[in-house]
């Protein structure tokens, strides 16, 4: 007779592949839905033996609880089935003027309220917990399609505990995490080399939270680099992706199980925080995750003198470039507001600037000869847009690691984004 599989082995397999926590529990309990009663009883008993830290277990149960109490994923306020398939891009519908817009009623996530709510943020479930995101590909002009109510009038400040994802923790645990997560090493930890191995971890534990005091990694220049958990925000976003890939692909066998679990919790908590913040501070990522109100003011695309200026020429104050929107009207794209534009719009402007820099004559482009100042400004704009698009691609990769974006295939075969 075959021996039944050890539940701990099943849990370790789940930790090695970023599966949905709620789906795992429902499968083990053989139920279709999770209720607060199930979470407080059978689920806790099922999972407590598999967690080295009760803080880690409480973190997952809190997210599952919020997902079961916040019902905006599945029903609208009238308790009817939600009218749109959330796995697909939001539909574009014509308004009274005949222009296509995205209906505000289809936006369901309240990450901005969660991040700014402090203690009250416990009643909001985050977008990475609630629903998968849609992929808009290269749809242009999304910034012109979203409703006015989506833009913020003023930028909102965040509650630090909500931003870290620990607003549901006890006070002492929050104080320790705030102390530990903000401790940074004195030296510069930035490097363009790729992380190829995690060689050593030094862990400090207090109040059931295992803090990574020091992390030693080997990069592709064959040198060892040492940094603290508090240095995560100073690393390149590619470094975070590299470390996540090493974990999910089972390449940390030199570390103990305790060290791997502590590394996993710390890294994914940081990744989750970065993803949620980017979703409310980047228009494309915000629309894809159905944010009701990102932390963005409307981009300043209009200036009175744009009508008499040449399209795809530089603008000095504020610094940016003039482009043409879908109505062939001149608009300003500021270099410090690229995160307020969709990927499709950015790619459209990027192609036009590259064509002009290379001297390619296209019918839609002006035929005037650029001065050196225009060429220098265009080169800087191209670099800035490239960096913005690259960051978005990496963010979409990070979303997959924490369940915020579906991934088809085996994570062991997943490749680095850049």
TrEMBL record:
<protein>
    <submittedName>
        <fullName>Uncharacterized protein</fullName>
    </submittedName>
</protein>
């Amino acid at each position: 007779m075959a021996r039944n599989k050890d539940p701990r082995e099943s849990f370790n397999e789940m930790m090695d592949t970023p599966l949905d926590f709620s789906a795992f529990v429902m499968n083990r309990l053989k139920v279709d839905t999770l209720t607060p009663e199930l979470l407080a009883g059978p689920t806790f008993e099922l999972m407590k033996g598999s967690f080295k830290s009760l803080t880690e277990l409480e973190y997952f149960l809190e997210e599952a609880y919020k997902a079961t109490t916040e019902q905006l994923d599945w029903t609208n306020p009238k308790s009817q089935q939600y009218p749109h398939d959330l796995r697909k891009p939001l539909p574009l519908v014509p308004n009274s003027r005949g222009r296509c817009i995205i209906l505000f009623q289809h936006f369901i996530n309240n990450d901005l309220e969660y991040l700014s709510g402090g203690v009250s943020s416990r009643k909001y479930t985050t977008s990475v917990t609630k629903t998968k995101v849609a992929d808009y590909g290269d749809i242009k002009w999304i910034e012109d399609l979203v409703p006015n109510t989506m833009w913020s009038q003023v930028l909102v400040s965040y509650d630090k505990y909500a931003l870290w994802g620990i607003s549901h923790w006890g006070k002492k645990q929050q104080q320790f995490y705030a102390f530990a997560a903000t401790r940074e090493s004195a030296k510069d930890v930035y490097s363009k080399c790729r992380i190829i191995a995690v060689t050593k971890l030094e862990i400090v534990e207090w109040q059931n939270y295992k803090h990574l005091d020091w992390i030693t990694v080997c990069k592709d220049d064959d040198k060892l680099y040492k940094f603290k958990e508090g240095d995560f925000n100073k690393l390149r976003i590619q470094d975070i992706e590299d470390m996540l890939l090493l974990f999910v692909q089972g390449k940390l066998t030199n570390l103990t199980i305790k060290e791997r679990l502590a590394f996993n919790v710390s890294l994914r908590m940081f990744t989750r925080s970065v993803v949620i913040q980017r979703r409310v501070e980047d228009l494309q990522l915000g629309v894809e995750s159905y944010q009701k109100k990102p932390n963005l003011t409307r981009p300043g695309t209009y200036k009175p003198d744009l009508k008499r200026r040449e399209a795809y020429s530089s603008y000095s104050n504020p610094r940016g470039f003039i482009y043409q929107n879908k109505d062939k009207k001149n608009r300003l794209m500021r270099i410090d507001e690229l995160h307020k534009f969709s990927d499709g719009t950015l790619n459209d402007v990027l192609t036009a600037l590259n064509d002009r820099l290379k001297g390619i004559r296209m019918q839609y482009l002006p035929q005037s000869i650029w001065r050196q100042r225009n060429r220098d400004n265009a080169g800087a704009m191209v670099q800035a847009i490239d960096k913005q698009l690259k960051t978005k691609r990496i963010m979409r990769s990070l979303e997959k690691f924490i369940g915020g974006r579906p991934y088809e295939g085996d994570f062991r075969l997943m490749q680095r984004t850049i």
